Amino acid sequence: MSKVKIRKIMVVVEETLSEMGKAIDPPTRKAAAVAVIENPFAGTYQEDLTDLMDIGAELGELLGDRCVAALGITPAQAQSYGKAAMVGENGELEHAAAILHPKLGAPLRKAVEKGAALVPSSKKMGGCGQPLDVPLGHKDAAYVRSHFDGMEVRMNDAPRVNEIMVAVSVTDSGRPLPRVGGLTHEEAKGEDGLR
Q: Is the pTM of this model over 0.90?
């Protein structure tokens, strides 16, 4: 039985067609799926955060699948990913950590096929309309510099004081016009999560 109470979901795709007067062909694309959920522990201290960890597992699958679908790609075509959460003022930062870390990663990796690298993450306290930056990194090889990036999301009415805003981002490419060197997407082996 589901433990998560979702008030709303937003899915958005950002597509970059040109940069500094240069055409980006094919365009670089990032998708974010964001869920605004009730914080079951708002206003109270709770030692056992298992319910939030279980919610993280549900959201990893739901939001990861939504991102892949929004990009119109197969899971294998996903190149980078990230996760973030913003807790409303009646919660605590550890609530975001409970959602993001123990269980969200495995279903997100399944949604993007493989995912050998750690999933970059960020967490913060915040209120309605505040931006949340979702850090991005290559899904299989942490040393692919062209995929060090981020995506900003925000909702004008979230998170409310007793809510948590949870975001997952997936891309089908790296940054537009990458030229700082390092391992490329094509060179990545994805065996150890680093190279």
A: yes
